[in-house]
Structure formats: structure tokens, C-alpha cells
Amino acid sequence: MTYQVNLSGGYYDAGDNLKLGFPMAFAITMLSWGTIEFRGKLQAKNELSNALEAIKWGTDYLIKAHPKVDVLYGEIGDPDSDHACWQRPEDMTTSRTAFRIDSQNPGSDLAAETVAALAAASLVFRPVDRYYSLLLLRHAMDLFDFARNHPGLYQSSIPSAGKTYSSSGYKDEMLWAAAWLHRATLGTGKQYADYLASTNDTGGTRTTFSWDDKYLRAQILAARLVLKGAVKGSGTWDHYKEQAEKFICSCMQKDESNNFQTTPGGLLWFLPWANVQYVTSATLAISVYSQYLANAKSSLECDTDTLKPSDLTAFVQSQVNYILGSNPKNMSYMVGHGSNYPQRIHHRAASIVSIKQDPSPVTCQGGYHTWFQKDAPNPNVLIGAVLSPDQNDDFADSRSDFQQAEPTTVTNAPLVGVLAYLA
To answer: Domain of life of the organism in this record (predicted)?
Structure first.
């Protein structure tokens, strides 16, 4: 059966030419979260309109990807085909097959993360575009019902997704989605609070916070309700708060036995593949929680210390300082910031001359021979892209080292809120 669906727009997730709904929705959720919490600071720096534009570019696509209540398109392009070629988006000759989930081929994780993105964005747009806000919320509520009524992992329905962003489960996304719908319905959506309260799995203390593991986000939003006195601080709600705070204490090296590892230069170290993505997510969570504590006139009790909101702020500042150049290599890992930043990032469009400068088509393998293997700085500076040093504070600046040198939207999206917080 052939469907006519307009799936233009949206974001490629990294240095390739794939549109992947799972990380895209995560990025939109994180960008929306930072905008909600630090809206005033973004506005004061004349950046709010830029944030709204970036979010809407993503949510417009997610709305189009949800043409029916029980249908959600989750991937455009094929990883094997895409990774075999090195071409500008304008030249790509690779497969543009669209893959979807539906009632017969479910994907609760993909659907629920999309719920979170749309629900969070509905709060972002509520003060400026009531109609669009309600449209986003309606799609979010429909998708939550779809995800709940048709459980399953999305890569079981879209097998190629397992080659790029394979999901380890969907319970975390369901909790995160419920938490955002509860907030987006201004607390009137009792069924979403009940969903959070009735779970037998609040996640425990997490070891990462990422596009795959959303438990910490649900825990922090639940802890916000406890700090505000909006829910009874007992049982399940207390578990959420305790687990969120345990993660933050471990980040800040204030846990008695389970502090997270850091590089010799002081950067949090979680995993070798684009480690800074986990740092930016963690620092956004800590930034948000610092504000929640300050609003509640409360502090954070860790095993070895009692931390004030200002202590959390200082830690976030230290991580941002490292990313922007205060590190053993004196390198800014944000491209275009400062005078010493990565030059050979793993990104097709950045590494190939602009089509405006040379419109000659770049072939699938020709791109590899002419541009990927060229030992020279990228001809286009991808300003704002954020990359990752290794566990020993080293960085090779090699286009072929995709673990370190490939930028991602899931790295940058949380950092917007963090930078606004520190502004």
C-alpha cells in the first residue's frame, strides 16, 4: 500500500543524512525543557525567538510524521545505504525509504518520546501561540494512548533503527511522557499522575541520562512535584526524588561509594561514544534541579555533604568551562568558539565544499575519495557543533574518528538550556 505523506523538514541527527525520529524527539524535548525552565534568561539575551524557531522546525515535522492516531513515521533513509556514501544532502543518491510504527507494528519508546517532545513544546508555545500549543498537546495525548495500548520496542518494527539508536526499553519513555503530559495539562490530567504513581519501576539510581535512558528526567519532574508540595512525599514519589538526587550527588562526587568517573581534567566520563552528549544532558538536569531547590528554599543532602543550589551551579559551570576550552588541551570542543577548536569534524555537509561554491555533484564514493580522506580542515565551519575528548582528555581531530569527532543534535539540545541558565 502506498501512502502520500509530506515528511519534509526535521533534523538529521548527526553527521549523516538520516532522519531518525527517536533521537530527534529527544533533542526537541531537551531543547523545550531548557526553554521552559530558563525562558526569561533566553529572552533577556534576545535568544528566545531562536529557540522557538528551532523547536518549531522539529515539532512541525513530528506533527507531519503523525498523520493518523495510530501511525508514526520514525525513520527516513537506510543506515547501510547512507553510511556507504559520503555526500552533501543536496547530492545524496541514497535510499529515502520512510519507516513507520502502527497498531500492528508498535514502538512505545518512539511514540512516548515523541509525546514528551510535543507535550513539552506545547508549554513552550502556550504564551505565544495558543492554537499551536493545543495542536501539539492533542497529538501528544493521542500518541500516549497509542504507546500505552500497543506496547513494544520500536526497532522490532523498524529493524534498521537498531543499527543506529537501539532502544533498551520503553518504560522510561512512558514515565517521561506521562510526566510531561501531567505538566502540560497543568495538573488536570490526573490519569498521567496516576500513571507515574502506580508504576512498580521508578528506575532506580541511573548511571547515564541519554537519548536511550530517560528515567532521570521522569525522576526530576516527579521530584519537582514533591518539592512544590503538589503530591504527597511518600512511597513512589519519594523514590523518584531520592533516585534523582542520588544521580546528582554521584555527578558532583559527593556519594559515599558510587561517584561517576571523571577525566584527569575534570570532565564527567560516562561512555566513549560522544561522551559530551551525556555531560550536557546531566548538566541540564543539574541546572534544572538547582532552580527547583532554590524555588523551594531547599538543599541537597548527599552522603558526604549538604549542597546548596549555588554548589550545583558551580559544578555546571565547571563542566561548561571544560567544554569551551578550560581543559588540558586548551581546546574548545564547540566548533567556532575561541581560536582553537576541532577542524576535521565527521560531518558530510561540513566536510564537502558548499554547493554554492562548487555545484558539481559529489558521488557516493567520490565524496569519500575527495573529501572524507582529505587531511585538511573542513571547508565549512559548522559553528556551534560540540565534540568529545576521550577518557584521558585527548582529542585526535580526525574525521575518521566518529566516536569523538561526530556532532549530534542530542549533544547540543541540552546545552542550550545550560548556557541560558549560566547566562
So the answer is: Eukaryota
Query: 3-state DSSP helix/strand/coil percent for the chain, to nearest 5?
Result: 50, 5, 45
Verify whether residue 16 is a known catalytic residue: yes
Annotated catalytic residue: which of 66, 182, 346, 347? Answer: 346
Return all residues near 82 (Cβ < 8 A) that are at least 6 apart.
16, 17, 18, 94, 95
pTM comes to 0.96
Q: Which of 16, 75, 113, 172 is catalytic?
A: 16
If the chain, 423 residues long, is cut into consecutive pieces of 10 residues, what is the mean pLDDT of each piece?
Answer: 82 96 98 98 98 98 97 96 95 94 97 98 98 98 98 97 95 97 90 94 94 95 93 84 97 94 98 96 98 97 96 98 98 97 97 96 96 96 97 96 96 98 97
Q: Is 98 helix (H, G, I), strand (E, B) or coil?
A: strand
Whether 66 sits among the annotated catalytic residues: the reply is: no
- Which one of the listed residues 60, 102, 242, 397 is annotated catalytic? 397
